[in-house]
Amino acid sequence: MRAKLQAMARLSTIAIACVLSLGVGFSSVLDAVVSRVVTPAVDSRVALAADGRGASTTYEVSYRSEISSLGFADSSVSARVGFEDAWFIGDHASYNNDLARTCAALSAACNSQSRARMFDRGDAVVSLENLGFEDIDASSYEGRSLVADELLNIVEGETDVVAYVFAHRPLRDGRGGYAGELVLVGVRGTYGSEWISNFNVGAQVSHEGFSRASAEVEASLDAYLSWHHLDGEQVKLLLTGHSRGGAVANLVAARLIDRAYAGEASWSTEDVRAYTFASPNASACGERTASRYDSVFNVVNPADAVARVPLSSQGMGLFGATVELPDSSQDDSSASFGLMQKNRALLTGCNIEGEQPSSSRTLDALERSLDGLVSCAGSLGVLLHAVDVASATVQLDLLSTVVAHSPDTYLSWLSVVDPADLRFSTR
């Protein structure tokens, strides 16, 4: 039965990926519709609205914007974000939108760390230094950031990999006393040959491609903690990532919590926090909604198709809580959608012409059609459901659907949204 479910999940992943042309990458899809996309918006590249509301001090996080790269030779953008030690002392199970915004920016920086060359330290390293982190280790990007590297990985069958960055900084309590060490784990999203791994669902409880990558991150993290003598009781861990990076971070966070729950770690379950963005479903584990994962938050855009695969109807989901951004097609969210667009234009320096508020109902219909398609695979009903999939696909606005997955969009949403408008659930 498990093998059948995983086979269905694999088919659903491939089907929706083909619909969205994900195999050629986010920027390539936007390039295909670039005539609708880019017009200059503002001169400033610092998003003033993303100014770390609720934080006494703000810091600059820089990254390569996939959206602005379509209209500007220099695609580097910067966001002002907050960072407070108090966020990691005390209540661990309450969602913190300011921390989510900071993690969204850092996950984008982890994505663009791959473009670091020669003496360029890279966006993630520089941004983490700005936030006071030290002993920053981005060595995993070596051998995984050049075209030649990706071709070699394909030839050698080494595609279930991922790049990640580790760093740590001391925490201080309200009186200035030492309150432990915060260790950050930032995971890069899909890059090059890793697209092959995205389709490697496998026949295990968790997505095989993501699971193999997460095992590497966990082992490397253990080595990092040991090398820097950070395996004591005062260690707190923060994990983040976008898209594939979010899925891997989700699985690593669950493993760290499980080890603490079993008494096999120096940290406690309350010491692990994770904020992921646009993550595809990563596991069919029946305990993924257990209370011990209350500090894991997975932010998803209802208009983001990537966050819907492999299909939840086939048993797949994420550890922890799902945090839904506003549905931009609803009347009560239309004003927020406009604010998000303005903030994103300020952040990226460009407008996206022709972008429409994407309705979650359209993706719901496509998801139901795909579910019917994979459920009747091998039967005569597959043709009927294939027609349903095609019909639902025609209703999608491809540009708007793909842009909904962009790190720029997630960061801009988190910069303007009222936390009271967020929806919390499990999947």
Q: Can you walk me through this structure?
A:
The chain contains 13 helices and 13 strands. With 427 residues, the chain is an alpha/beta fold. The protein has an 8-stranded mixed sheet, sandwiched between helices. A 3-stranded mixed sheet has the order 2-4-3. It has a two-stranded antiparallel sheet with strand order 1-12. Helix 1 crosses helix 10 (360-375) and helix 10 packs antiparallel against helix 11. It starts with a helix and ends with a strand. Mean pLDDT is 83; it is low at 1-11, 13-36 and 42-49.
In terms of topology, how is this protein built?
Elements: H1 2-20, H2 26-32, E1 38-40, E2 46-47, E3 58-64, E4 76-82, H3 97-112, H4 123-130, E5 134-137, H5 147-156, E6 164-172, E7 178-187, H6 194-198, H7 208-227, E8 235-242, H8 244-261, E9 272-277, E10 296-300, E11 321-324, H9 334-348, E12 350-352, H10 360-375, H11 381-394, H12 398-403, H13 407-416, E13 423-425
